[in-house]
Amino acid sequence: MHFQFTPNEEAFRKEVRYYLEREIPKRWRELGFGLWEETDESWAITRDWNRKLGEKGWLAVAWPKEYGGQERPVMEQVVFNEEMTYQGAPTGVETMMTIGWVCPTIMIYGTEEQKQEYLRKAAKGEIVFCIGYSEPGAGSDLASLTTRAVADGDDYVINGQKIFTTMAHRADYCWLAARTDPDAPKHQGISMFIVPMNTPGVTVRPLTNILGFHSFNEVFFDDVRIPKENLVGEKNRGWYQLAIALNFERSGVAAPAGAKRMLEELVEYVKETRRNGEVLAKDPLVRHKLADLAVEIEVCRMLCYRIAGMQSKGLIPIHEASMGMLFGSELMRHLTTAGMQILGLHGLLNRGSKWAPLSGAIMRGHLASLSLGVGGGTSEIQRNIIATRGLGLPREPRV
Questions:
Q1: Residue 105 belongs to a domain
Q2: What residues does 226 pair with on adjacent strands?
Q3: How far apart are CA 249 and CA 113, in angstroms?
Q4: Which of 85, 102, 326, 371 could pair with 257 as two cysteines, CB 3.0-4.6 Å apart?
Q5: Do 384 and 255 lie in a common domain?
């Protein structure tokens, strides 16, 4: 990979940065919401913002033009995503799921009819997907899922339950993994479906997260009937499509970009804040913590660029994507933990208190970071992938 951006990429970065500085809604800045903080107002702002980006062809800048993109190189997509996160644009997790994970997989495995139906609408910001993977009894061992899809004439009938389904209460469709052959080995009897969330038999119940917001859900499927054309890819080979979607999920530059912005705000805080008569920036422990974090952010950024470089060459990052996700999850925990230590007891105060440093962003980020080593595959799963697929280490024998 090259360790500098091309003139075209740098020019595009300036264009995006200038646009974001002018166009991000003032009210969004005032709200100061993070990734897992969602309300009716933040949802309305996000939807309007996505439609605005869709009109420019920027919501999916690397997609082919026939599907609503601009056919920009992968690295320009990386530049765009980096600036969006760093500048705090109102593109929520539902956009990451739809544009970053689900639709690229549909682009690979879907029929042309499916691509025309879903990709063009997604690129315009008109539809949103949620992810139907985890179940009460199937998390890290995802292939043990039991939600069933049974063929019945021209339809499939779905029964089962999903849990921790982010933004299911807002989504138009669910990207669903279901078992279509209960007698096959568990990795070989799964298929992927697109399920409209307004289909009779779909029930969504809220799960409130640690921040007090409703972003997660449990979803029940009771005799949900969908047409057979909603099957994506080959029947009973959905595990491989799911794995590709997970690789997309584990890729991305959001973690180091968001961490960089948070670190810069912490640096400004310690320069301006006195404790025991001394500026915090002179405390060697504080300086060393921040310096270590700066190094971690740069390492994470390079890992993400490496993944994008592979994708731009048509290569499939597997253990590399797991490395990026694992390092990014650990980075956010390290950063917010150090931030809480630096802020002291005032760091416990939330947005709304005049005494809350940085408007309580570090505290909320610290709570949100607890889930980062779980969603998309736990940190332990990522380490297993790195060990077996990257280092060629043998699996531990079962006793």
A1: no
A2: 156
A3: 24
A4: 85
A5: yes
DSSP symbols for 124-188: TT---EEEE--BTTBSSSGGG---EEEEETTEEEEEEEEES-TTTTT-SEEEEEEES-TTS-TTT
pLDDT tens by residue, 335-393: 999 999 999 999 999 988 999 999 999 999 999 998 888 888 899 999 999 999 999 99
- Residues 257 and 230 occupy one common structural domain: no
- 300 plus 380 within the same structural domain: yes
- Range(s) of the domain holding residue 203: 131-235
Specify if 375 maps to a domain. yes
264, 386: one domain: yes
Task: Print burial letters for 229-257: b (CB count within 10 Å at least 16), e (below 16).
Answer: ebbbbebebbbebbebbbbbbbbbbbbbb
Q: Is residue 71 part of a domain?
A: yes
Write down the mean pLDDT value for the chain.
94
Number of domains in the chain: 3
Active site residues: 249
Which of 91, 121, 148 finishes a domain?
91
81 and 212 co-located in one domain? no
CA dihedral in degrees (91, 97, 99, 105; nearest 10)? Answer: 170
96 is a domain residue: no
Judgement on whether residues 151 and 84 belong to the same structural domain of the protein: no
Q: What is the DSSP string of 300-359?
A: HHHHHHHHHHHHHTT---SHHHHHHHHHHHHHHHHHHHHHHHHHGGGGGPPTT-TT-GGG
Please state whether the predicted TM-score (pTM) of the whole model is above 0.85. Answer: yes
Query: Of 65, 91, 117, which residue is a domain's last?
Result: 91
The predicted-structure confidence for 231-273, as pLDDT tens digits, reads as follows: 999 999 999 999 999 988 888 899 999 999 999 999 999 999 9
Helices 319-343 + 284-312 axis angle, to 10: 160
φ, ψ (nearest 5 deg) of residue 341: -65, -40
pLDDT per residue as tens digits for the range 167-192:
999 999 999 999 999 999 989 999 99
Cα dihedral value 332, 128, 203, 377, nearest 10: -30
Distances (CA, A) of 243 to 109, 187, 195, 279: 12, 11, 19, 49
Q: What is the pLDDT of residue 251?
A: 85
What gap in Å lies between CA 198 and CA 204, rounded to an integer? 10
